[in-house]
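Input C-alpha cells:
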C-alpha cells in the first residue's frame, strides 16, 4: 500500500472519530442552511444531520478515490486520461495505476478534510444564540479547497502531458 493511500485511510478514520466525538454537541433541531445575512433558514433533525455528515464524510471521498483511482482500470482511461492509449499500454499500465490511486488518495484526503471543517463551522454556528454562520471562515475554507483542487488538477495534467510521438 502506498503512502498516499495509507494517509487517506488514516485521515478518514481520524476525521470520522473526531466527528463522532463531536456529535453530542449537535442540537436538535440543527441549523444547516444559512441565508445571505448568515442567519439560519434551513433546519434538520439531529439524527438526520448525523447521518448526512457521516455519509458525506465517508461517501464523497471514497467515491472520488474510486472514480479517479479505480474506474480508469475498467475503462483503460478512455475519457479520463489524456492519450490513454499511451498511458495504459502494458509497458506503462502499472505505473499509471499507481499514479492514479496515489493522486486520487490526495483528493480524497482534501475532500474529507473540507467536509469535516464544514461540520465544525455548522457546530460553531449552532453554538450561538441565535445560530449564525461565520461566512468569512466558510469562504476561506472554500478558497483553500479550490487552491488545493487547482494544485491537484495541475499535477494531474502535468503528469499526463500530451505525448508527442
Amino acid at each position: 500500500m502506498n503512502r498516499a493511500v495509507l494517509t487517506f485511510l488514516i485521515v478518514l478514520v481520524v476525521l470520522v472519530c473526531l466527528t463522532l466525538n463531536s456529535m453530542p454537541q449537535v442540537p436538535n433541531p440543527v441549523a444547516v442552511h444559512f441565508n445571505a445575512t448568515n442567519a439560519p433558514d434551513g433546519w434538520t433533525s439531529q439524527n438526520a444531520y448525523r447521518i448526512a455528515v457521516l455519509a458525506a464524510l465517508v461517501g464523497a471521498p471514497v467515491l472520488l478515490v474510486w472514480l479517479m483511482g479505480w474506474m480508469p482500470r475498467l475503462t483503460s482511461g478512455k475519457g479520463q486520461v489524456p492519450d490513454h492509449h499511451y498511458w495504459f499500454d502494458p509497458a506503462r499500465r502499472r505505473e499509471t495505476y499507481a499514479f492514479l490511486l496515489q493522486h486520487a488518495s490526495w483528493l480524497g484526503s482534501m475532500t474529507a478534510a473540507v467536509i469535516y471543517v464544514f461540520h465544525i463551522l455548522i457546530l460553531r454556528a449552532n453554538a450561538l444564540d441565535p445560530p449564525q454562520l461565520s461566512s468569512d471562515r466558510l469562504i476561506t475554507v472554500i478558497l483553500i479547497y479550490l487552491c488545493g483542487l487547482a494544485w491537484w488538477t495541475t499535477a494531474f495534467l502535468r503528469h499526463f502531458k500530451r505525448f508527442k510521438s
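The mean pLDDT is 94. Residues 8 and 109 are 5 Å apart (CA to CA).
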